Amino acid sequence: MNIHEYQAKELLRRYGVAVLDGHVAWTPEEAEAAAAKLPGPVTVVKSQIHAGGRGAGRFADDPNGKGGVRLAKSPAEAKAAAAAMIGHTLVTKQTGPQGKLVSRVYVEAGCDIARELYLGLLVDRATSRLTIMASTEGGMEIEEVAEHHPEKILKVAIDPASGLSGFHARKLAFGLGLSGKQVGSFTKFATALYGAFQELDCAIVEINPLVVTGAGDIVALDAKVSFDDNALFRHKDLESLRDDSEMDPKELDAVRNDLNYVALDGEIGCMVNGAGLAMATMDIIKLYGSSPANFLDVGGTADAARVTEAFRIITSDANVKAILVNIFGGIAKCDMIATGIVEASKNLHLSVPLVVRLEGTNVELGKKILAESGLAIIPADNLADAAQKVVAAVKKGG
Fold it and tell me: For Mg(2+), which residues are the binding ones (predicted)?
């Protein structure tokens, strides 16, 4: 689950992470009032959307104008900047050409910036440890730094038994070229950020840019926080931070039905149980010349009702020209899945080709249920056979 910058900073502030003062505003008038509360002489008005590159982005109705982050030298200028953002669609390299509608802005105090750095925390699959990444290339996307200047990315993997120690932070501080007071300020900042990451069960925390002020303080100028969905049951208060308007309606529908769904731009809908199998299914669709319309993992305990909801979400995508069901039966037995497929096909009046590959527990009974359903279901013997058949069905229909 992702949250907005202003929400992330409010959370991080509670853990002692240094952030600037600011206020969220839903109207230009609120932005003006927010700017008047801040010390000045400069405030910054920031569009709040779940996407990076806001400063370099452009509004769809004013592509040649200013971006989604603007300086204001008075409350009146803050009001004008907010008016140009709220209710308008901001297009950045992360939103895609459709952009995202700005419903609120964050009005933040200005800052005396001496240097811009990067600091991020994530779980590194290679080491199975929480890893802190830092770079002198603040303001740039870390993927670009990794591609063009990999030597400028510093990494420290933290042993979960001992946690973050002072020497970890000092190693990063020295690697970033910090000295004197800056080292102590960075150590305090990194320790607080690590504590927030651990306690909140975060998936990613990214501070970009992390700034060194003229006075030598370390402050988060921006903040991106993403939570591990599987741990949200431990943080009921965080659920209220979810912004449904930022989610694809199909993805939001999937969340409400305990389905793992990500919308893509292909033409073959996928319903699979297991994330690894789902990724393999998407790959083989590409291998045989088409593209997946979604990632959808119904989970290992899927029943007929969940299968029906999965079909409903898949078919709500107008780009779907065929559906591939790839199930390895375990706890969710093949006969149970087959029953769900039949019920869903009938209830939803499925009109696109449907290819089904079943394997695992009660597979023969599952195949029998499909064969006797009277529906035009295309059976497949294995994954390769299923991919070839569903791609052929799409090309025949096209």
Answer: 208, 222
- Residue 126's pLDDT is 87
Domain 21-109, CATH class in plain words: alpha beta
Min mean pLDDT across 56-60, 237-241, 394-398 is at 394-398
Strands 322-329 and 268-272: parallel
Tokens found for residue 341: 């497929």
pLDDT score for 246: 83
Per-residue pLDDT averaged across 297-304, rounded?
74
- pLDDT reported for residue 92: 92
Q: Is the peptide bond before 41 cis (omega within 30 degrees of 0)?
A: yes
CA-based nearest residue to 57, from 21, 20, 85, 22: 85
The answer to whether 294 and 269 have CB atoms below 8 angstroms apart is yes
| β pairing state of 129-135 and 113-124 | antiparallel
Q: What percent of the chain has pLDDT over 90?
A: 67
Closest C-alpha among 307, 303, 320, 305 to residue 263: 320
Topology at the third CATH level for domain 113-237: D-amino Acid Aminotransferase; Chain A, domain 1 (3.30.470)
**C-alpha–C-alpha distance, residues 25 and 56, integer Å:** 21
Residue numbering of the annotated binding site: 46, 53-55, 108, 111, 116, 208, 222, 273, 330-332
Catalytic annotation, residues: 118, 206
Dihedral class, residue 257 (left if φ above 0, else alpha if ψ from -120 to 50, else beta): alpha
Binding residues for Mg(2+): 208, 222
Q: Is the pLDDT of residue 397 over 80?
A: no
Q: Is the dihedral of CA 87, 91, 92, 95 positive or negative?
A: positive
Q: Torsion over CA of 141, 145, 148 and 153, rounded to 10 degrees?
A: -170
The residue extents of the domains of the chain are 21-109, 113-237, 247-397
β-pair partners for 119? 134, 207
What would the two tokens of residue 47 be?
């569009």
User: What top-level class would CATH report for the domain 247-397?
Assistant: alpha beta
Q: Which residues pair with 122 in a beta bridge?
A: 131, 204
Residue with tokens 């409903």: 312
**208, 139 in Cβ contact below 8 A?**
yes
Q: Where are the alpha helices (DSSP H) in 86-176?
A: 142-148, 166-175
Tokens describing residue 177: 């070229």
